[in-house]
Amino acid sequence: MQVLPLRGKCPICGKGPLRHLEIGYKLYVEKSNQKQPIGGLLAFQCEQEGHIFFVMSKDMEEAAA
């Protein structure tokens, strides 16, 4: 999947640049004692401080349109 570059600064420290992380993990949310997979999340990392944060892929698609 091609990911558009994320412009801007890290939402945690305000520094940059940012890069997309290819993660090999599945994320889950627990609701009513049942784990449900979370889809459509993209991971990014602040290259200066190493902070990792997530962005919904649909938000990236909407911003690109």
Protein model, in words:
The protein contains 1 helix and 5 strands, in the order βββββα. By secondary structure, it is mostly beta strands. It has one domain. The strands form 2 sheets. A 3-stranded antiparallel β-sheet has the order 1-4-5. Strands 2-3 form a two-stranded antiparallel ribbon. Strand 2 and strand 3 form a beta hairpin. The longest helix is centred in the last third of the chain and has 8 residues. The two termini are 17 Å apart.
Topology of helices and strands:
Elements: E1 18-21, E2 27-31, E3 34-38, E4 41-46, E5 52-56, H1 57-64
Antiparallel strand pairs: 1-4, 2-3, 4-5
Mean pLDDT across all amino acids: 84
Q: State the helical fraction.
A: 10-25%
Globular, elongated, flat, extended or rod-shaped: what is the shape? globular
The strand order across the widest sheet is: 1-4-5
Number of strands: 5
> Strand-residue fraction?
35-45%
| Sequence stretches where pLDDT stays below 50 over 5 or more residues | none
Structural class: mainly beta
Terminus-to-terminus distance: 17 Å
By DSSP (H or I, 4+ residues per run), the number of helices equals 1
Q: What is the C-alpha radius of gyration, as a whole number of Å?
A: 13 Å
Order of helices and strands: EEEEEH
Number of domains: 1
Largest sheet: 3 strands, antiparallel
